[in-house]
Specification:
Layout (H helix, E strand, L loop, with lengths): L30 H12 L5 H15 L4 H15 L1 E2 L2 H4 L9 H7 L1 E2 L1 H14 L7 E8 L4 E8 L8 E3 L7 E2 L6 E7 L4 E2 L14 H13 L7
Parallel strand pairs: 1-2
Antiparallel strand pairs: 3-4, 3-7, 4-5, 5-6, 7-8
């Protein structure tokens, strides 16, 4: 279940068929170094070592795939590697935004943890931020706030929904059980039906805190 943060700054075509190139300057991730850093930061990893190394294999195996195939691989990976659990159980907090490494260490997470992990994995695989939005929705059948990742292949195209509730990636038009509330990415904040950003995501303090944690862990994405 997602806890919708306050919006007032507190927190928040054809090219789609071609393989995307990795963003210049990021370089290859050293997962041995990531694991060493995680152990210094979080303590003994135990079985989480296997999950983090599997994440590294995901990047290696997916690097040259077309964008749709990258979506499938990343969505499937995190839906299998992370079991759903409320923040109160995993982090003893009502609302907590975990980094992908934190989620893999716990092997569990809330809906926003799935969306965040998928977003940053796809960004690392070269999909530009303007095609990806972390989207708050209302899950109508559950009557709960929820978070998903949406993929926008072009500004005019219908988005695809990556969700932890179901494993299939479906167009938003086929997810009538989800009512969009708002979305955000590194570019800004978006309201339903809007193609342009409405505010700067740099003002989302929770987003900035998340980026800072990821840089400390050694997983840097040039955003925010």
């Amino acid at each position: 279940m997602a806890t919708t943060p306050a919006l007032a700054g507190a927190c928040p075509g054809s090219a789609a068929c071609r393989p995307a190139r990795a963003k210049p300057g990021l370089g290859r991730l050293n997962f041995s170094l990531l694991i060493d850093t995680a152990e210094r930061r979080y303590g003994s990893l135990g079985d989480a070592r296997v999950r983090i190394r599997a994440w590294g294999t995901l990047f290696k195996d997916s690097a040259h795939l077309a964008e749709q195939d990258k979506l499938d691989s990343v969505n499937r990976f995190f839906n299998r590697q992370i079991r759903f659990a409320d923040n109160s159980r995993v982090w003893q907090q009502i609302d907590y935004w975990a980094t992908p490494i934190e989620s893999l260490i716990k092997g569990a997470g809330d809906c926003e943890d799935y969306a965040i992990a998928k977003y940053f994995s796809l960004r690392r695989l070269g999909i530009p931020s303007e095609k990806l939005r972390i989207t708050y929705v209302k899950a109508l059948k559950l009557n709960l706030a929820h978070m998903v990742l949406t993929y926008h292949p072009s500004p005019a195209a219908a988005p695809l929904v990556l969700d932890n509730l179901i494993n299939q990636i479906r167009p938003a038009s086929r997810r009538q059980d989800l009512l969009p509330v708002y979305a955000f990415n590194a570019e800004g904040l978006y309201w339903p039906g809007s193609r342009s950003k409405k505010s700067d995501s740099k003002k989302l303090s929770r987003w900035q805190d998340l980026l800072k944690k990821m840089r400390t862990e050694g997983f840097a994405i040039d955003e925010g």
